[in-house]
Design a protein that fits this description.
alpha/beta; Udp-n-acetylmuramoylalanyl-d-glutamate--2,6- Diaminopimelate Ligase, Chain: A, domain 1; five-stranded mixed beta sheet; 10 helices; about 35% helix
């Protein structure tokens, strides 16, 4: 059984928290650095269900930070204070590994294991894939419902960022001569902007592009003798079918 600070330092060695974007809030969000950690839970998102399920004196490592913006008050009838209350009462610590883990692990995993690209380079937080691809063939890489905007039949350079990464790509698409974007949570006006520029977009879905966070991190924790519990979440969206 390790102390929270020891686990934190180990996670930092895997994916340095210093790599997170300026707007992010990764790192230790709740807890006492000297606490002994009995169990570890891995999750994409900290939910009320997980907070109730997790054992006392444990640690939750999430991808998305539960505390993102500054909290001016803790109203336990409001989100995220309702979850924070449960965690504190049960002495459950919380660490978030968000954009730092995107940079070191998650984007690469999505590109290699999910999309099947093994030849790419990194630009900022994005993975850039060069080649010659049929757009319709790219769509077949996804075995779930997706949205897309097609501008060209043949794609030569793709920028890929998991989650809601369109903002990261906006700063590099001209420099890299991107003609296709794969990311999640794409807004209507983003599609209209890039469509006018002749850049195709595939909305890979925020959840589906990041839901393997726990599976990636779990083997590392086994190296320090923790068989972490992966708390799988269902996609919060349901798809209406005809």
């Amino acid at each position: 059984m390790l102390k929270l600070i020891e686990i934190y330092k180990y996670l930092d060695s895997i994916s340095s928290f210093s790599l997170q974007e300026e707007w992010d809030n990764s790192g230790l969000l709740i807890g006492n650095a000297e606490s002994d950690i009995k169990d570890i839970y891995l999750t994409l998102e900290v939910t009320k269900e997980l907070a109730l399920f997790a054992k006392e004196d444990s640690l939750i490592i999430s991808h998305h930070p539960l505390i993102f913006k500054a909290l001016k008050r803790l109203d336990f009838l409001d989100y995220p204070s309702n979850i924070i209350e449960i965690l504190i009462k049960k002495n459950i610590s919380l660490i978030a590994m968000h954009t730092n883990f995107d940079t070191t692990h998650l984007n690469k995993y999505f590109v290699e294991k999910i999309l099947g690209f093994d030849d790419y380079h990194i630009k900022g937080i994005a993975c850039i894939v060069d080649g010659k691809f049929e757009f319709d063939a790219l769509l077949k890489k996804f075995d779930y419902s997706i949205r897309y905007s097609k501008c060209k039949d043949i794609i030569q350079k793709i920028a890929i960022v998991c989650g809601s990464g369109i903002g990261e790509i906006e700063s590099i698409y001209k420099e890299c001569n991107i003609d296709c974007i794969i990311t999640g949570d794409v807004k209507y006006h983003d599609v209209m902007k890039f469509k006018s520029l002749g850049i195709s977009i595939i909305d890979a879905n925020h959840y589906h592009s990041e839901c393997f966070f726990g599976a990636i991190l779990s083997p590392y924790l086994k190296d320090i003798s923790y068989n972490a519990i992966i708390f799988d979440l269902e996609n919060p969206f349901s798809i209406k079918k005809d």
